Amino acid sequence: MRRLLDIPPLIIAVGFGLVTLVGLLFASLLPEVASILTGWAAFIAAAALLFGVLNLLVIHLQRFIRGRNFFSLALILSMVITIVVGYMDRSISELNGLNTIFQYVLQPLEAALGSLLAFFLLFAGFRLLQRQQSGWSVLFIGAVILFLMAAAPMPAAFSGLFSWVQDYIAPLFVHAGVRAILIGVALGTITLALRLLVGIERPYSK
Amino acid sequence: MSFNAIAVIGVTLLVGLLMVFLWNRLRQGREVGLRPLPAYRTLRTQVGRAIESGRHVHITLGRAGLHSAAGPTSVAALTALDHLAIDSCASGIPPMVTVGEATLLPAAQDSLRQGFAQAGRLSSYSPIQTQFIAPETNPLAYAAGVSNELHAGNVGSNLMLGRFGAELALMGEAAARVNAPQVIGSDDSTALAVASALTKDVLIGEELLAAGAYLQGKPWQLASLQAQDWLRWVVMVLILVFGILSGIGFFT
């Protein structure tokens, strides 16, 4: 019975995967098929987002009711206000409430968090030296400092001091390393995609 | 037919045939020598330690949608979750799962449900044990949400597998503050640079995509990993040959 139930999702996934691939490769053979299927995927993704929002709402409602968690209450209220403002925007076009929320609430909060990233990275660097006192750690920290110096604005007299980092170290070592990672990922993606396309790997039915 | 179409069909056929050949060799009893990856060993031991100490394992799956170009990274992360969920759910201390993209939510919920089912504790499963934090367009909101979960939950181990960016630093710092050892795997070069500062257990790009072969070890997964290794040699030789030809001015 279990095996029988596995068959419909397998046929849908493999069939749609192959049709999309053929549609992308031979646009004349299956005109617009790939774009239609990609559109369906986008619709499913939008539906998943709705379920995601509901999941978030249920979890935080439960936390507020059971644990009197006021951060959860703040999240629920923010969600409700944003939905109401979004609905009002549709009826009163000059209100522009969603833009106001994004501009005066979300953007400053994200900017504040983003500015903290540098400090967190600094802490991580110190922790690395504490945790792992090896040549590799020193090389890592040394490379970070070198690239920071090269990227930082310098007085005119010192501006050419670290240009060799951008001219030689970045293209030789950094770009080569990044390309090596990308080639590895591409090879892994090809083999995994093939397993998905022929239905050997089935993340949709376990 | 365009050159791109011919190239895609050629590569697909080549890789497919190579995988079938290697799978056949495995069936005939040939052993596969997997390159030792300490991060996978740590991943298993960390989960065991967290469960023994009565603390949760937190697993976050990044913010690459299953319908996006980085989908395979998320599929690999989900494979790791499938494996880890079985152990954690059997122990009675289910993992805390968070996602930063909506299409990952049902897939992660299914993994967890399957973990409970295999442990014979399906009645303990609840869909809200997997939490959607923020959509993929808000990486900092995602990082803030995950950090909050790490602080609030009783977390003994932190696993971050999937597509991340620089926001990984916020989540890694939160895990470090609650003394949770970490394993990080990603295909993004920025995230990998940050991860190297946060932990020694990093799964770099293709190593994360090999999660199935290392954790489940099914013949097809092992065959495709071996195919990857062979193809890497082909790519290396091609780079070398084209480098030499370019150096001697063959293409000018």
Shape of chain B: globular
What is the element string of chain B, with H for helices and E for strands? HHEHEHEHEHEHEHHH
Structural class of chain A: mainly alpha
What's the total count of β strands of chain B? 6
Given the structure, what is the number of helices of chain A? 6
Q: What is the terminal-to-terminal distance of chain A?
A: 14 Å
Uncertain parts of chain B: none
Could you tell me the radius of gyration of chain A in angstroms?
A: 26 Å
Structural overview:
The complex is a heterodimer of chains A (206) and B (252). Chain A is an all-alpha fold. Chain A is built from 6 helices and no strands. In chain A, α1 crosses α2 (33-67) and α2 packs across α3. In chain A, 10% of the residues are buried. Chain B has 10 helices and 6 strands, in the order ααβαβαβαβαβαβααα. A 6-stranded parallel β-sheet of chain B has the order 3-2-1-4-5-6, sandwiched between helices. In chain B, α1 crosses α10 and α3 packs parallel to α4. Classes of the chains: A mainly alpha (206), B alpha/beta (252). At the A-B interface, α2, α4 and α6 of A face α1, α3, α4, β3 and α5 of B.
Give structural attributes.
heterodimer; A: 206 residues; mainly alpha; 0% strand; B: 252 residues; alpha/beta; 59% helix; globular
Topology, please?
The complex is a heterodimer of chains A (206) and B (252).
Chain A: H1 2-25, H2 33-67, H3 70-91, H4 97-131, H5 135-151, H6 163-197
Chain B: H1 3-27, H2 38-52, E1 56-62, H3 71-91, E2 96-99, H4 104-118, E3 130-132, H5 139-152, E4 155-163, H6 168-177, E5 182-186, H7 189-198, E6 202-204, H8 206-209, H9 211-215, H10 219-247
Parallel strand pairs in B: 1-2, 1-4, 2-3, 4-5, 5-6
Helix pairs in contact in B: 1-10, 2-3, 3-4, 5-6, 6-7
Short description:
Chain A is an all-alpha fold. Helix content of chain A is 82%, strand content 0%.
